[in-house]
Amino acid sequence: MKNTPKRKQRNKPGVVLFTAVAVMLMLSILLTATVSFVSVNRTKTNDNYKSKQAYLTASSTLESFINQIQTDTAPTNDPTAKAQQKKAIDNLKKLASANSGKGTTTNVSYNGSNGKSDNIGTTKITVAQEGTSAKYIVVTCETTYLGKTEKVAAHISTHPVPKPAEYTNTIELVGNGGAGYDNLNVIGDMAGINNTTGKIYRFTNNTSIYGSYLMYGSLEVSTQPLIMLKPSLVDEKQGSTVTISENLDVSNEFHINSTMARADGYNYVNIGQKLSTSNHMDVGSSGFDVDLFCCEANIGGNDYTQYGNFYVYKGAGAYNGDATFGANGQTINGSLYVEGDLNVTKSLKVTGSVYVTGTITGKDKIVCTASNIHEGAVLSKAGRDAKPQIPVSADAYVYYPEDFFMSSDTNVTTISDKYQAFYDGSNTKTFNTFASDWTNVDYTLTELIDLTGTGAKTPVTSRYKLRITSSCTWAKDLSFNDYGNGSRILVDVSDSSGDIVIRLQNGLNLGAEWSPVIVVRNRSTIIDTTTGDRKYNCYFVSDSGSAITLNGIDSVTGKSQHSGSSACNYSFKGLKVFDYDTYVRMFDSSVLNNTKGNPGLPQSGFVLNPTSVDVAGSYRPKNSSIIFLFGENTTLNATDQSFFQGSFYSPQAIVNIATSGLGGLVVTDSAGGKMTVQCCAVGVVIANSFGNANTAFYVYTKPSTTSVMQNAKGGKDDSAFGYTLDRYDHY
Predict the structure, then answer these.
(1) Which residues contact 70 (CB under 8 A, 6 or more apart)?
(2) What confidence tier does 228 reach under pLDDT thresholds 50, 70, 90?
(3) Which pLDDT tens digit goes with each residue over 579-596?
(4) Using only C-alpha atoms, what is the Rg of the chain?
(5) Lowest-pLDDT range, 76-85, 105-114, 256-265, 482-491?
(6) Which of 46-60, 100-114, 439-453 has the largest mean confidence?
(7) Nearest-angstrom CA–CA distance, 250 and 248
(8) CA nearest 619: which of 632, 631, 606, 633?
(9) CA atoms within 13 A on the CB side of 725
(10) How deeply is 364 buried, as exposed, middle or buried, from its count of CB atoms within 10 A (0-12, 13-18, 19+)?
(11) Taking Cα atoms as reference points, which of 40, 85, 81 lies closest to residue 60?
């Protein structure tokens, strides 16, 4: 039958994920629901009217089917849900491939006002193959009304689509080794995502995390570290949690508090194995409960105080759910649940109830209403009492910087041509090339900017010693003697420049006497309508060479493999990298009008907002378009008040930002609370290993969704099972 489209064809690309609802049931619900779209007037018999009613019924049925799926489903990271999604799309394919590809047809009759079937018309919906493969499906709705028939169809391509990468951690460690942190302060979440057993992480000297913490391995804490559970910076409606896959050992004062009242889904500490304390641990506070789960507990030394429930459940291997409480001063302002045996050697105050599956030794030392102590209890492990699951593995990376440098697959990278141009001789530009062009030296920029967020724009002038307008190498040939300390360098991204890729020449080493200030201005006009991110980005890349070989995707791990990446080493003292829109708001005209010099502290009144909501009187940066891509065996050492506003994707590299950073930065939370910090980085840092020193703060801002980092995750284990709605047709 010839297609004669009477309505505008609409392309609706995008991944649509099915829930676990059986497809046949969904079809049935949708078909019966769509009757309400059509008001039947049996007194009219005009053929045109009959055709229109038949068309409206058919098209409404079809659109209802498509829209219902789009409305009721959403992407998920949960492995069980992803398996259900795959099963659902497979069921749809089975419907289509039935009867040798002719598919499955379901009939629906109209109902009259009395609820009984009226013989005034029917609609049938068919799910069938389009061609020889169930990869392509056509859903057809055909309605006959008072002798007139109309048919509409939706053409669907089913396929697995790699799930876009999500970046939720301010600092994320990818390596299989442990780490020690001294005065590390994180605003946002932190994670060690490599699920290698036996790793040990250590917190010392007032290390603080204002968000969630997930790590595979054991954590040893001393010298007053703090985890403050805050609303998620990714989704302010969600809370935060602490997850440790193995042991937690507290030797000297550990505080886990919250700014939120407890709710299902957050405000908990989940320890996969044993909790041991020897000197002062606080969990939660009055009005802000934090529940704690572990598989064995040994509470000793001095002081254990908790507001929330304490759960000791059996675990794998030798973890039998036993608990010993022997601290000098121990209070649980909540209930205690023990699936094994409970041994109390010193006074234990419990304001709620005590439930023990095994035996209780030292029952007389429990300060609790006698009727609330239950020995031989059966634990429900439901609702609030259900132990949270520790994920088998974190969301792993598939593609590495080497893939972005060398791949020819445009679904993976957009910068490989510009990267390889440094090595094939087609791009020999360096910073010094631009310094030789007087139009880029002592550059003055004046732009109308909304500084107050009210829509009123005022002219802002900023000056730079040098401007970079295209991809080039930051080589050792730039004479900073001609520029002096704190030279301001503008990297100007535009539609004409496209992505600007700046290769850092291997061995680049700048002492504190130079301390350059790099400002990246992005004015590309092509903008993602969903995220608001500009199409083009600025990449600082390692000098990893052109001998890199991409060896394909590993069939077991689903990860990309590569070889031949050259090792690189970089050392910067006092280097500062700013996003232009932040820079012109952070500093006043006395700083902006200088082409060199340390910019100093942010101006009074500037407040940085890293949250996902607007806060009055603060500035919330957009997703960062400044991306650092460091290949395998690259090492970055940044010291002496260095500061980076941008995201590091360095899963096989070492990033040492051992610096006190930018002083006097005021940061707000979603409730308008403020704190002043020494800030080393605003973005995300993903590294094989990470080093810090001094009182350093790292503040979350996610990378641009148009950058190549969006493709870093995905592939074998992270595919979203769905379809693309290619077009509608009216026959």
Answers:
(1) 16
(2) very high
(3) 999 999 999 999 999 999
(4) 30
(5) 76-85
(6) 439-453
(7) 7
(8) 606
(9) 20
(10) exposed
(11) 40
- For the chain, the residue count is 731
pLDDT beyond 60 at 13: no
Neighbours of 147 (CB within 10 A): 11
**Residue 350, pLDDT score:** 98
Whole-number Å distance between alpha carbons of 724 and 682:
36
Number of H helices, E strands in the chain: 8, 52
Arithmetic mean of pLDDT over the chain: 85
SS (H, E, C) 557-600: CCCEEEECCCCEEEEEECCEEEEHHHHHHHCCHHHHCCCCCCCC
| Contact call for residues 188 and 683 (beta carbons, < 8 A) | no
pLDDT category of residue 263 using cuts at 50, 70 and 90: confident
Continuous H helices in 469-552: none
What φ, ψ does residue 244 adopt, rounded to 5°? -125, 120
CB 407 within 8 A of CB 401: no
Share of the chain above pLDDT 90, in %: 59
- Mean pLDDT for 445-456 is 91
Q: Tokens 């829509």 identify what position? A: 455
Asked if residues 175 and 164 have their Cβ atoms less than 8 Å apart, the reply is no
CA distance 634 to 639: 17
Place of tokens 């049938």: 124
8 Å CB contact between 21 and 91: no
In the block, tokens 């991409």 appear at 550
| Model pLDDT, residue 176 | 85
Q: Which residues pair with 243 in a beta bridge?
A: 214, 270
pLDDT for position 443: 97
Which position has the token pair 């507990």?
Answer: 297
Rounded Cα distance between 645 and 655, Å, is: 15
Query: Order of strands across the sheet with 104-111?
Result: 104-111, 117-129, 136-145, 148-162, 719-730
Q: Is the per-residue pLDDT at 69 higher than 60?
A: no
Give pLDDT, residue 206.
Answer: 81
Q: What is the mean pLDDT of residues 722-728?
A: 66
Question: Do residues 508 and 474 make contact, with C-beta atoms less than 8 angstroms apart?
Answer: yes
Are 630 and 644 in contact by the 8 Å Cβ rule? The answer is no
Q: Which of 391, 390, 360, 382 is nearest to 373 (CA)?
A: 360
Measured CA to CA, the distance from residue 378 to residue 299 in angstroms comes to 24
Q: Which residues contact 604 (CB under 8 A, 6 or more apart)?
A: none
Looking at residue 243, its amino acid is: T
